[in-house]
Amino acid sequence: MRETQAAQNGFSMFRYKEDRLPVLIILALTLIDFILYFTVSNALVLFVYYLLMVIPKGTICAWNHHHQHLFTFRNTLLNRGLEFAYALHTGVTTHLWRLHHVLGHHLNFLDQEKDESRWKRKDGTEMGVIEYTLNVALTAYPRGYVVGKKHPKQLKPFLLNTLITFSILGVLIWYKPVEALLLFVLPMITSLLFTAYVTYDHHAGLDTQNEFEASKNNLSRMYNLFTGNLGYHTAHHHKQGVHWSRLPQLHETIKDKIPDHLYTKSAISNMVLGD
């Protein structure tokens, strides 16, 4: 009885029970990275591992995104610890997406002069996917900081935990540079670029002031399994505070407002995840 109660209390650290398995998998991958860091010195083996993990770690970016919208744990220290793990996988530190994405993009995605993930150039023409990817990835931290100046309570943990994260990363590089490069540095860079690349399909080309016509949706079962229902993108923008597990139900209440041509399949979905 006591063991059962203890287990229930442990799980109650989560705000939503649906987060338990994704977090367990992500932390397991973090543990594997550190085991390899301390035990494997063969650069070729680690490079092959890096290549094999490009898509899985890119997928983790979706879960980091969900966490920044609605923190996973009830406890702040647990959230900070999880965010450190996310940062090593995705290149995005504590509160960066909360500033850049939650307090930036979600408020401005209908205005391409302000949108932190804007897909238009200054002259009003549409960027190509490569230009957009580089633009969003390279400006992620500066734009997050700019938004943070309007939200000092959110800016402080961003700056502090970014400093902590990169300080620890610096120690890892100093101690075992090749291993740190292949297990942490390259994945962080690749995942940040991957994140920007896959978000191009979310809004690019949709020049409208109607929120129900400003996002593309991917209802592929496998895509939404691996991304935490990120394919229900109109619903996510309609009510960004809704937990990822509730997005299909929210979608059902608004799907009649979404034009048929906004249901699509991304290149990543078709190539990797299938139907």
UniProtKB/TrEMBL annotation:
Keywords: Membrane, Transmembrane, Transmembrane helix. The chain crosses the membrane at residues 21-40, 46-64, 158-175, 181-200. It comes from the Bacteria. InterPro entries: FA_desaturase_dom. It comes from endosymbiont of Galathealinum brachiosum. Signal peptide: none annotated. This is Fatty acid desaturase. Residues 44-263 form the Fatty acid desaturase domain. One of its GO terms (biological process) is lipid metabolic process. It holds the Pfam family FA_desaturase.
